[in-house]
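To whoever is on call:

I kicked off a structure prediction for a single chain this morning and the downstream step that reads the tokens threw a length-mismatch warning. I double-checked the sequence; it's 315 residues and nothing unusual in it as far as I can see. Pasting both halves so you can look.
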Amino acid sequence: MKKTIIYILSVIMILTTFSGCNGTSEDPDKESETKEEAATEKENPITDFLYSTLDDGTLIISYIGKDSNVVFPSEINGVKVTSISGISGEGIYTVESVTIPETVTTIVSEAFKDCTSLSEVNLPDSLVKIDREAFAGCTSLKHIYLPPNCFSDYIDGTDYSGYNIFGNSGLETVELSEGIEILPDNIFYMTNIKEITMPSTLKTIGFGALMSCEKLEKVTLNEGLKTIDSCAFGGCPKLTEIIIPSTVDKLLEVAFRRSRNLKMVKFEGNAPTEFYIKSLHDDFKDELPQFTVYYHEGAEGFTSPEWYGYKTEIW
């Protein structure tokens, strides 16, 4: 009898050892994290979406469910989803994260406007248009990655329907992909961005792009940039210095309207052909900071000791 008991105990010990080798003793926290990640990436049920067919045969959809994490489907009943019209119903106040599939090319105007709990947005590289006020008022959104072609509909400089895309949101940091050529008008109006670096492909900074960003301290502009429009950096009281690349040909002085602490505007190249417009200057002269213009010796177009009323120095 004793031999039998010893034999049974030995078998149990061996089985226990093998079960440990097979991974059943893994960290339960890691296992739960894996399950959470899988659940987060899983598309929400089709019944959680309203959809309609576009002229090209693809779908535009909006979310009407109650989950806080939303993964939009890439297709419904075999038909490709290419446009997102946003969140409807209670989700406006409860949705916390949104993942958009690689089939989507357009996010329509006001799609996620005033989704105050939205803190995470995953945008696909397939995106070619984010329309006006799409994420305006998303006060919990602190960071955004913007894919290479998301503003490609605006590169001709005539279509500014991207107005105020992230205006009045909680943005603090922005990752701008190489490939982006334009920042549409008022895109980051009244956000909490402290520092921003432009991609080497950027050509145009639209009207009021970073206007009233009261925490903005540092802007790194790229060689290849051509246009900085009116009020682009207006109302940024912590901005004290900015370096203008040699490729910039249009920089209106009112780009810095109400940025009262701007002391130094440094030019890497020749003077821009568009800078001083008398009518604009006269309209806003009381709101223009009295910065010093710095330029390299030999640069063309500047005058000394002043240029359009701004003190000049060699740097």
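Update from on-call: the warning came from a stale cache, not from the record. Cleared it. Sanity check on the structure: Helices lie at 2-21, 28-41, 91-94, 278-284.
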